[in-house]
Every structure is written in C-alpha cells, then in structure tokens.
Amino acid sequence: MSPDTVLAIGNDALALLGAQTVQQADEGTEMAALLTRIAPVTLRACLSAHPWRCTLAQPQLVRLDGAPPHSYRYRYALPTDMISFRSALRSGAPGADLLADHRIVGNELHTDETQVWADVQAEPPLIRWPPYLRAFARDALAADLALAVTGSGSDAQLFQARAWGPPSAAGHGGQFAHAKRVDDQQAPLAPIRSFPLLNVRAGGWR
C-alpha cells in the first residue's frame, strides 16, 4: 500500500479517534509504527471488498524469460499493485475474449498465449480515491485502530458499525453500503440496442 495513502487515510482515522497525527511513516513514534502495521491490511481489505471503479484495470502483462517448469510455454508477471485477479484476456480491446487456458502460480500467470491482458483490481493512487471510498476506508481503519489508540471497546464497536453496519447487516451496511451504491451509480448505462415499440412501422397497428 502506498505510504501516501496510508498516511492520508490513516491520519483521517486517527483524527476521528482524537489521536495525534503521524507526519512520516518512519518517524519512530509508537503511533507511526501502529499505523504502518495495521493500515495497509485494513485498506487493502476495503479495496478488495467490492470492485470499485477506481481500482479496475486491464494491463497487458509482461512476459518473463524462460519457460515455466510444467506444461505451459510462457510465464507472465502479474501487476505488482494488483489487489485481486479477475480474469485473463486475449486482448485489451473492449469485450475481449476470456483466456480460459492459464494457471496462476504465485505472482505469475502461465499460458501458451504469446500475448496476455489481465482484468484486475489494482491499488489506485491516492488522488483517484473518490470521497465516498475514503470515508468508508477511514471509518473501517478507525475501527481497527480504536482499541489500541483509545483503549475503548465501545469506540471500536462504534466505528465498526459506521463502516460496515450493525451486526444484523452482516458486513454489508454502513458506509460500505453507501459507497457501493454511489460507485455503482457511476457506471455508464448500456446502450439500448433494440426496443420493440421503436421497431413498429407506421400504420402497423390496426
């Protein structure tokens, strides 16, 4: 996770908890050590909880030297900023065919194809985090930091509910639910290719 992202959202969470902010990840304070240990895991979990539009990417994979040790001919490096792998593609064009014949081995993709693209979720730079996603991640991080920072279990429960909703929501409520709704509204509408009423010729009704 980018240090800039950890500090920016981490300091937002610390401010909610009434704690002193961190100036640099390596400043040597107890709060900096706590933040750099907890924040990357929490923020990665927030990003992987939903296919946020700011995380979606389809990079062409870089082919590595040497053949893989088993049945496939080529090995490709998966993106270093990848959060989750969604599928392999035969090209980077819209609507590209899926590449079914492949294997993921560690940080590599093995296949017989000479070119491969990947549909992935990748960590966005801080400037691309929309406000609703930052608000959700801030509250989720405050929940994970609360017990260590304030010593209060009730603070942890409060921010847990703000981030993910009450227990009855089973992790699908709170800021998370709001952020998902807003993010889904950003998706472009699919064009209407056919509508029966538009195809009725003049005089077609009797």
- The shape, in one word, is elongated
The H-and-E topology, N to C, reads as HHEEEEEEEHHH
Mean pLDDT: 91
Q: Uncertain segments of ≥5 residues (pLDDT<50)?
A: 191-195, 197-206
Give helix % range.
25-40%
User: Can you count the beta strands?
Assistant: 7
The first-to-last residue Cα distance is: 66 Å
| Radius of gyration, whole Å | 22 Å
- Number of discrete helical segments: 5
Largest sheet: 4 strands, antiparallel
Q: What is the beta-strand fraction?
A: 5-15%
Structural class per helix/strand content? alpha+beta
How are the strands of the largest sheet arranged?
Answer: 2-3-6-5
Briefly characterize the structure.
This protein has 5 helices and 7 strands.
Describe the model:
The radius of gyration is 22 Å and the shape is elongated. The strands form two sheets. It has a four-stranded antiparallel beta sheet with strand order 2-3-6-5, with no helix packed on it. A three-stranded antiparallel beta sheet has the order 1-7-4, with helices on one face. Helix content is 37%, strand content 15%. The protein is an alpha+beta fold. A hairpin with a 2-residue loop joins strand 5 and strand 6. The relative contact order is 0.16. It has five helices and seven strands; from the N terminus they run ααβββββββααα. The C terminus is likely disordered. Helix 1 crosses helix 2 and helix 2 packs across helix 3.
